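Exercise 7. Given the encoded structure of a 237-residue chain, write a plausible sequence.
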């Protein structure tokens, strides 16, 4: 099995296994064989399953951080219920801030390397700096447009702010990737009618919404990646 196939099947397998276990517990409880309530006391194991599934699904290190956090929290809560450790979840909430900071640093370094390599190439010659869109909004907003005929992607960050990106006059030669990080913020992207949107992001109390019309030919792919926390990303024509 190829590595790409594992990304699709492993998370479904793990989550499916968890659903089967829950169903069996309910069934045995209804048949008065066991007391299902005693076993549901250990529900944090579900957080561990979700974290493992997320790590297997995400190809980028920054997105895997959230899977690691879920595994850590679920394992700690489970060990507390087993009386191995004394764990208070609220004492460790600052770890979320640490995770956000680590993710932003990783995105900044990885994004800079990708932007430099793809834009200037190995020869150091600027091919088309307009092929990328980069925007950073903190408690504010930006409106930007791009008309590159060889659009390659971008890096968008919105923290308690909003971004509006207009790509309707741009074109893609193959695939383009936009990496988004939104924390209590929103991002709106407008694209041409012949682009096919592929969402590969991770929402936490937020969401991605694809309002585009499916193109008749899907040769131009816009891949949306990143993390949305208590925010939203909307893509439309």
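Solution.
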């Amino acid at each position: 099995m190829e590595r790409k196939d594992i990304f699709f099947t492993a998370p479904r397998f793990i989550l499916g296994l968890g659903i089967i276990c829950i169903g069996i517990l309910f069934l045995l409880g209804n048949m008065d064989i066991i007391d299902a309530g005693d076993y549901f006391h250990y529900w944090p194991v579900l957080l561990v399953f979700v974290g493992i599934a997320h790590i297997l699904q995400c190809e980028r290190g920054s997105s895997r951080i959230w899977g690691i956090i879920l595994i850590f929290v679920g394992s700690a809560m489970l060990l507390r219920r087993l009386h191995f450790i004394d764990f208070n979840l609220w004492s460790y909430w600052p770890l979320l801030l640490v995770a956000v900071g680590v993710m932003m640093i990783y995105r900044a370094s990885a994004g800079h390397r990708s932007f430099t390599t793809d834009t200037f190439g190995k020869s150091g010659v600027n091919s088309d700096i307009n092929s990328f869109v980069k925007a950073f909004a903190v408690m504010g907003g930006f409106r930007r447009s791009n008309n590159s005929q060889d659009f390659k992607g971008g890096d968008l960050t919105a923290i308690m702010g909003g971004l509006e990106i207009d790509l309707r006059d741009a074109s893609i030669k193959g695939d383009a990737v936009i990496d988004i990080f939104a924390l209590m913020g929103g991002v709106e992207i407008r694209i041409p009618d012949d682009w096919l949107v592929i969402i590969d992001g991770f929402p936490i109390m937020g969401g991605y919404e694809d309002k585009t019309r499916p193109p008749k030919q899907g040769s131009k792919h816009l891949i949306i990646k990143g993390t949305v926390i208590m925010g939203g990303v909307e893509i439309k024509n």
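Remark. Residues 3-92 form one domain. Students should compare their own answers with the one above.
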